[in-house]
Each structure stands twice: as structure tokens, then as C-alpha cells.
Write a structure and sequence with these properties.
Rossmann fold; 19 helices; Domain 2, N(10)-formyltetrahydrofolate synthetase; twelve-stranded mixed beta sheet; four-stranded mixed beta sheet; alpha/beta; 3 domains
Length: 553
């Protein structure tokens, strides 16, 4: 059996100009990055011509795999088979998980976006530009303190961290400025992975270059000795940061294996950030296609909740339908099946694990979203299991459709595509946000914890309790919330699979992200700088003398 990268390398790509022509993008609006990649100038906004929006999400991820990106790409290709003029809008992969656990994040099998190697590695340099802007701000902060500290910044209250786009646990907590006086002012610091940087969130939520600059100016970098807030605007460096991002803000156009247009732009994680591709890429897809297919990171408790409560108000359009991805294997894991027996039929474990899918379906329905379940098929799935899963979904009032996009491409997702089109035509979405921003901060956190996760209550640790008071005094309590939580469980304990009950959500601290326009709520032991596994995917990666890449899954 061919690997994903071998399939990708055998695929025929069309020149990117041909892909652009399909959706009415002229060469004057394109900046070419080789033969198969281009940046697109931001078109004028015109909601009257927007297409339908399809959000793809999933159950809580497991080591068995769910294949959300594979289904997203397959769905777009399936819509293409139906001549529905689809456009994809996805996040770009971070090098952290590419070199760590995943090995690649551009779909799989015969449902991929191309050029796979470029997208998974440095692509058009957007993430590097974000890293540079993030670290330029760190350098400017420390230089300001070193050069006399006119603003009176308290070095011990600088909350802005440096970043890099790799998993490196050694950098979670650092000390900078060591040495003599010429080396700077010593202080504690640390690194976040770039996809957790507020600048990533800012770029992904900005509507245009001017909005990007305004958002950058609002970023809180720390506090003075008198506990006054210090922002990027106080440092007067928003112009320089915008300059570093002037190209990165433009969406990247590539193609699927079946030459469906795809915008790959922005990549915040959903467990520690808001988990959605850029607003400008999604808007561009909506303007240029009749159906825009996008996804939100990890399970619906993280990515979809943040899409609906954070991105939708900025996008100014809610999804017309939600596709919920599940696999028999993953549901059996949620139902207690041991990982080395997932290929064996176990209807009891499947039915028990279905509770996880059922919870996510109910959550999406509570937002007023029509839901379709996509069963991502594996060769090991038993017919009895697939039939049972379809029946369980029917009892919940949703249609479940099998997708074999991994093995068959667009044809394997054509029935799913047809069902999505019919559902959008027959059922109108009636979007309703989970909470109003005017709610007290504590109540907003409890609402997400109890309504989406199923928590009994929320426990605020000492630092978080103080921040509840401080943030209210600063006027930040009216912002939406972005909860950082493990992706593996509805709770904040990664070991609690299925649908845990009777648990409390533990909030240890919060971070203001005024540029992004939300507050990050850190729960449990979630980390903003991941570590590498015992055997990183990087160990299997290589390149031959002709430049051919090996080892990307």
C-alpha cells in the first residue's frame, strides 16, 4: 500500500493559474510562489454573493484517528463531482506536530491538498513571519526596558512570551538577560509554540491589513510597576509588526488532488487557541465558491465551539450545516475497547462510545445547526458496526453517511456531498450563540463548561480568582472566552473518555488577548508549548539527493 506522500508525489497538479481561473481569480490578483502556490489579493467584500458555509468538526480525537481533514477535502472533491463550485478553506500545518506526532496534516490517501510537502513544511512562510513578528515584539520589549524603561514596565510582569514553531519542552520556562549589564535586564520568560501566539490569532481574525494593525496595537504585553496595562501601542511598534505581516495576511491558494481550489491560511491550535483558519481565507472562499468547506480543530467541544462563539461574530456568517466526523474505531475506544483490538467487532463498545458522538451532536443542535454525521470508513470496519452506528444516528434525528474519501477520493465522498447539499436546501440554520459577551466572565466560563463539556462546576484556583476581579476592573470581562483544554476528553482530564460526568473544570489562570479580542482560560495541565513524543515523526523523515521528500505520512 502506498503511503500518503507516495500518493501525493504520483498525483498530477494543474498550474495554479488554472485553479485560480476556475473561481474567477485573475493573474493581476495573484502573487505566484512557484508553479503550484499563490497568494491572493483580498477581494472587495460583498455578502450578497457569498456561498453556503459548511463546517466540518468531529468527536474527541483518539489515537485510532478520526480523519477530519481527510473528510473535509473529500467533501469538497465530492461537491466538485456534483459540479457545485466548492472552495476549501483550511488551516496550515504547524511544524510542531508535523515533526512530532502527526508527520503531516494535509489529509490522507486519495483525499489530500497539494503540494503536500510544501504545505507541511515551510509553505509560503506565513508561520515564520508570525514567529518573527512575535519575537520582534519580545526584542522590542526587552530593549525598551534596557534603554531606560520610559514606560515603567515591571520586568516581572511581562506576559508576552517568545515563540517558535516546534515542540520544545525545554523552552517552556526560561531566564533571559543573563550576564553583565550590557546583556540586558534578567527576567523570567518562556516560549509558546507559534500557533498559540496571539499574533497568529490576530492574523486569523483580522478582516484586512488595517484591522490587523489595529488589533496588533491592542495586544497587552505586560504591566507597569503601578499595575497599569502596557500595550503594543504604548511601545509604538504596531506599524513595524504590521510591516512584517503584510504578505502573511494574504490567503494562500493551492489545490486538492482532484484540482478543487483550496485556501490554506493560518493555523491556531484549538486546544490552546481558537482553532480556525483565517477569516480572510474563509470570506474569500465564500465569495468565490458556491459552497465553502472549512474545519475547526480537534473535537467539537473545542474547535467548533470556538468557531461558533469566536469566529462567527468576526466572520459575520454562521455555518449553513455542520458535518460531524466519527469513526467506528474511535467510538469503540471511547466505549472502552482496548486499542490493540479495534479491528475486532464489538457492538457493545461501539454503542457505549456513541455517547461521545451523541453529546457533540446535541451541542451543535443547541447552536441551531443542521448536523450530518460523516462515518469515515476503515477497511477493518465490520458491516454490523457500520449499520449500528447509522441506526444510532437515526435515533438522534441525524443522517449518517459513510465516506471512503481516503481510498476513493471525491467519488468516495459523493454521497456525503449530496446529503450535505440536500440538508442545506431543506433545513435552515438558526444560529444562536452559546452566551452573550455581556455575561459576567465567571458565568461565561461556567456556561461553556457545563453546556458543552458537561461539567458539574468550575473551580477557580487562587490566581484565576484574582484575575476575575482584575479583568473586571480593566473592563475585559465583556470579551468572549477561549478555553485551553485537553482535546482528548470533554473534561480537563485527558484520561476520561466517552462522556464523563460529575467532574469539575479546573481554571488555573487566564491571559488577556485584546488584539485577538478574547480571553484565554487555561485549564487542567494543558501546555502552550508541547513536547516531542519518545519517537518523534522526524526520525523517519529524509530527503534524497534529488530533493525528493520521504517520511511525511
Amino acid at each position: 500500500m502506498l503511503s500518503d506522500i507516495e500518493i501525493a508525489q504520483q498525483s498530477k497538479l494543474a498550474p495554479i493559474e488554472q485553479i485560480a481561473e476556475k473561481i474567477g481569480v485573475t493573474q493581476d490578483s495573484m502573487e505566484l510562489y512557484g508553479k503550484y502556490k499563490a497568494k491572493i489579493s483580498l477581494p472587495e467584500d460583498s455578502k450578497a454573493s457569498w456561498g453556503k458555509l459548511i463546517l466540518v468538526t468531529s468527536i474527541n480525537p483518539t489515537p485510532a484517528g478520526e480523519g477530519k481533514t481527510t473528510v473535509s477535502i473529500g467533501l469538497a472533491d465530492g461537491l466538485n463531482k456534483l459540479h457545485k463550485n466548492p472552495v476549501l478553506a483550511l488551516r496550515e500545518p504547524s511544524l510542531g506536530p508535523v515533526m512530532g506526532l502527526k508527520g503531516g496534516a494535509t489529509g490522507g490517501g486519495y483525499s489530500q491538498v497539494l503540494p503536500m510537502e510544501d504545505i507541511n513544511l515551510h509553505f509560503t512562510g506565513d508561520i515564520h513571519a508570525i514567529t518573527t513578528a512575535n519575537n520582534a515584539l519580545s526584542a522590542l520589549i526587552d530593549n525598551h526596558i534596557h534603554q531606560g524603561n520610559e514606560l515603567g514596565i515591571d520586568p516581572q510582569q511581562v506576559i508576552w512570551k517568545r515563540s517558535m514553531d516546534l515542540n520544545d519542552r525545554e523552552l517552556r520556562h526560561t531566564v533571559v538577560g543573563l550576564g553583565n549589564k550590557a546583556q540586558g535586564v534578567p527576567r523570567q520568560d518562556g516560549f509558546d509554540i507559534t500557533v498559540a501566539s496571539e499574533i497568529m490569532a490576530v492574523l486569523c481574525l483580522a478582516s484586512d491589513l488595517a484591522d490587523l494593525k489595529r488589533r496588533l496595537a491592542r495586544i497587552v504585553i505586560g504591566y507597569t510597576y503601578q499595575n497599569d496595562v502596557v500595550t503594543v501601542h504604548d511601545l509604538q511598534v504596531e506599524g513595524a509588526l504590521t510591516l512584517l505581516l503584510k504578505d502573511a495576511v494574504k490567503p494562500n491558494l493551492v489545490q486538492t488532488m482532484e484540482q478543487t481550489p483550496a485556501f490554506i491560511h493560518g493555523g491556531p491550535f484549538a486546544n490552546i487557541a481558537h482553532g480556525c483558519n483565517s477569516v480572510v481565507a474563509t470570506k474569500t472562499a465564500l465569495r468565490l465558491g458556491d459552497y465553502a468547506v472549512t474545519e475547526a480543530g480537534f473535537g467539537a467541544d473545542l474547535g467548533a465551539e470556538k468557531f461558533l462563539d469566536i469566529k462567527v461574530p468576526n466572520l459575520e456568517k454562521a455555518p449553513d450545516a455542520v458535518v460531524m466526523v466519527a469513526t467506528v474505531r474511535a467510538l469503540k475506544l471511547h466505549g472502552g475497547q482496548v486499542s490493540d483490538q479495534l479491528t475486532s467487532e464489538n457492538l457493545t463498545a461501539l454503542e457505549k462510545g456513541f455517547a461521545n458522538l451523541k453529546k457533540h451532536i446535541q451541542n451543535m443542535k443547541n447552536y441551531g445547526m443542521p448536523v450530518i454525521v460523516a462515518i469515515n470508513e476503515f477497511d477493518s470496519d465490520q458491516e454490523n458496526e457500520l449499520s449500528l452506528l447509522e441506526e444510532l444516528c437515526r435515533k438522534e434525528g441525524v443522517t449518517a453517511v459513510r465516506s471512503s474519501a481516503w481510498s476513493k477520493g471525491g467519488i468516495g465522498a459523493q454521497e456525503l456531498a449530496s446529503t450535505v447539499v440536500d440538508t442545506i436546501a431543506e433545513k435552515k440554520a438558526n444560529y444562536e450563540a452559546l452566551y452573550q459577551n455581556q455575561l459576567p466572565l465567571e458565568d461565561k466560563i461556567k456556561k461553556v463548561a457545563q453546556k458543552i463539556y458537561g461539567a458539574r462546576d468550575v473551580v477557580f484556583e487562587k490566581r484565576a480568582k484574582k484575575q476575575l476581579k482584575d479583568f473586571k476592573e480593566f473592563g475585559w470581562d465583556q470579551l468572549p472566552i477561549c478555553i485551553a483544554k485537553t482535546q482528548y476528553s470533554l473534561s480537563d482530564d485527558a484520561n476520561l473518555l466517552g462522556v464523563p460526568t460529575g467532574f469539575d473544570l479546573h481554571v488555573r489562570e487566564m491571559t488577556p488577548k485584546l488584539g485577538a479580542g478574547f480571553l484565554v482560560v487555561l485549564t487542567g495541565n494543558v501546555l502552550t508549548m508541547p513536547g516531542l513524543p519518545k519517537k518523534p515523526a522526524a526520525l523517519d523523515m529524509d530527503v534524497d539527493a534529488k530533493g525528493n521528500v520521504r517520511g511525511l505520512f
